[in-house]
Write a structure and sequence with these properties.
Elements lengths: L2 E19 L5 E21 L9 E5 L11 H13 L4 E7 L10 H16 L6 H11 L12 E4 L4 E4 L2 H7 L3 E6 L6 H10 L8 H15 L7 H4 L1 E2 L2 H7 L2 H13 L3 E3 L6 E4 L6 H12 L4 E6 L2
Parallel strand pairs: 1-8, 3-4
Antiparallel strand pairs: 1-2, 2-4, 2-5, 5-6, 7-10, 7-11, 9-10
Helix pairs in contact: 1-2, 1-3, 9-10
The chain binds 4-diphosphocytidyl-2-C-methyl-D-erythritol 2-phosphate (SUD) and adenosine-5'-diphosphate.
4-diphosphocytidyl-2-C-methyl-D-erythritol 2-phosphate binds next to β1, β2 and α5.
InterPro entries: GHMP_kinase_C_dom (IPR013750), GHMP_kinase_C_sf (IPR036554), GHMP_kinase_N_dom (IPR006204), IspE (IPR004424), Ribosomal_Su5_D2-typ_SF (IPR020568), Ribsml_uS5_D2-typ_fold_subgr (IPR014721)
Enzyme class: transferase
Catalytic activity: 4-CDP-2-C-methyl-D-erythritol + ATP = 4-CDP-2-C-methyl-D-erythritol 2-phosphate + ADP + H(+)
């Protein structure tokens, strides 16, 4: 039986414009998202179907805080895969969790997409790319982006995903950054709920979002400039920053003391700072830990 070991990366929303609520209750958005060169590891051990009976999907995880029952997006994705393909095989999933939960780093969605990629490799009659993307989107709004290995633009409720044009992607790939998260998490449902409560005040217009993206793509090929800070935008920050002032205080401090461009990822609470080559990384990490305590999560990585 085959065993696959796959990386399941975290993501950062470099630009996140939530543009309004849809009839189905979800929100439309325009987002530039990039996977990080860091994340969880998923080992997938194939279990053959015996006597034309279905074999089970099971999950273990080294982090006791992560559910390992049907609430886990890995098992949801696996069952969705079976329903879509009729595949009778099973799998033992073993997840090594590094991505903090409720951070806006897309850990659960990434795990689900990674599970789908694994099962599609194991299945005798795999889904094509369009079918796999549709299936991923049915598991979670943020899942489909993780079927790509580089920066993408995500639209709709997150289900319409296209790779960034190469010239723009090249400006992001390999870019160093620090990702840091305080001890508290923020629930995605809460963050969208705050936008609904403030509607229509908190929404960005789709036109302004597309213009921001187009402006950045226009100058992205100009090597004499580094316009990354002009791309960074997130209208989920208002609610999170109002409730948790530790977040904006930290970002202001990193700009003031180290001149760093920063932002919050997704619904938070993780934030990121771009690291120039000569950045005093140890000093920056120390500043984060001094303010947020030793329980703060800090990782130095780069965009994939
Ligand atoms: C905000 C974002 C930005 O990338 O990321 P995270 O902060 O969660 O990482 C995503 O839109 C999160 O996507 P995801 O976490 O997959 O959301 P889902 O599981 O589908 O839905 C969780 C909750 O968010 C709401 N939701 C989600 C996506 C969307 N486009 N509109 C919504 O209103 C749903 O109504 C639901 O209450
Ligand atoms: N494989 C998984 N890894 C982490 N969380 C998961 C997973 N499957 C389901 N969840 C649940 O998803 C919720 C959000 O998790 P996560 O994807 O890490 O956050 P975020 O949406 O902020 O990026 C949590 O309530 C968690 O219990």
């Amino acid at each position: 039986m085959r065993t696959l070991t796959l990386q399941s990366p975290a993501k950062i929303n470099l630009m996140l414009a939530i543009t309004g609520r849809r009839a189905d209750g979800f929100h439309d958005l325009v987002s530039v998202v990039a996977p990080l060169a860091w994340g969880d590891t998923l080992v997938v051990e194939e279990v053959a179907a015996a006597n034309h009976e279905r074999s089970a999907f099971t999950l273990t995880c080294d982090d006791p805080g992560v559910p390992i029952d049907q609430a886990n997006l890995i098992l949801k994705a696996a069952e969705a895969f079976r329903a879509a393909t009729g595949w009778l095989g099973g799998a033992r999933f073993a997840l090594t969790k590094r991505i903090p939960v409720g951070a806006g780093l897309g850990g659960g969605s990434s795990n689900a997409a990674t599970a789908l990629r694994a099962l599609n490799t194991l299945a005798a009659t795999p889904l094509d790319a369009v079918e796999l993307a549709r299936l991923a989107a049915s598991v979670g709004s943020d899942c489909a982006l993780f079927l790509h290995d580089g920066p993408v633009v995500m639209r709709g409720r997150g289900d319409r995903v296209e790779p960034l044009p190469e010239r723009a992607a090249a400006r992001l790939r390999g870019r160093g950054l620090l990702v840091f998260k305080p001890a508290f998490a923020i629930s995605t449902a809460w963050a969208y709920g705050r936008l609904v409560a403030a509607a229509p005040g908190g929404y960005a217009t789709a036109t302004a979002a597309e213009e921001r993206l187009a402006r950045w793509m226009d100058v992205a090929g100009d090597r004499s400039r580094d316009p990354i800070a002009e791309l960074v935008f997130n209208n989920m920050e208002s609610a999170a920053f109002a409730k948790f002032p530790a977040l904006p205080l930290m970002l202001e401090r990193l700009l003031r003391e180290f001149g760093l461009a920063t932002g919050m990822s997704g619904s938070g609470s993780a934030c990121f700072a771009f690291l120039p080559d000569d950045a005093p990384v140890a000093e920056i990490c120390a500043a984060v830990r001094r303010a947020w305590g030793e329980s703060a999560f800090v990782i130095q990585t780069h965009l994939q």
